[in-house]
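Work Package 3 (structural annotation) set out to generate three-dimensional models for the target panel prioritized at the project kickoff. During this period the team completed the workflow that converts sequence records into discrete structure tokens, so that structures can be stored uniformly alongside our sequence database. As a representative example, we reproduce one entry of 203 residues exactly as it appears in the project archive.
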Amino acid sequence: TDPQVLTYASNFLPWFGTLAEAEHNAEQLLSLDPLNSASWISRSQTFLASGRFEQAAEAARKGLELAPENHSAMNMVALVLAAMGRYDEAVAAIGNYAPLKFWAHLLRAIRAFRGGDIAIGERHLAAIKTQYDDKFSYHYSQIYAQAGRIDEAFAALDTASKIKGTRLNITMRDPMLRPLHGDPRFRALLHRLDFPVIDPQFA
């Protein structure tokens, strides 16, 4: 089995394949290339999608240990910390590293909104919108969901759906969208997006 093919598949299977397939793919990749940071990032992503955050954090840290300058590994560490609600640590994990400037704004926006500092949150959100406009509507939904602004989160997802924006393929298992799961609009959205696999709680 080709590690490159497995790495490519690991970007998609955790989010809209079966979790069993995703875990098998990640284990295969790790067994073939255990000293490659990408193998551990793939493993972390699979754990993240399945809600196993502690294991995701451990794998992400291993990926970063193998490649300290790998911005994908840095970002994975930060995203797992964010999924665990540890936004101060998530922001610190990225710091001011230029290739991750977008994610720095996103995480700082969420941290500010959750901490009640609306002005700072809006400033970081505006910095993203100025550069990306509607193209990153999916990411605005992540910010709004984590801020508890549920209607705005669904409005952003609706825009993302209409323009076929980036990242919609992770909607079902995205930890940042968990605040939306109890709303019937979320289930309706997943069916409208026509995921090949629908997790039982949304079927």
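The chain is about 70% helix and 0% strand.
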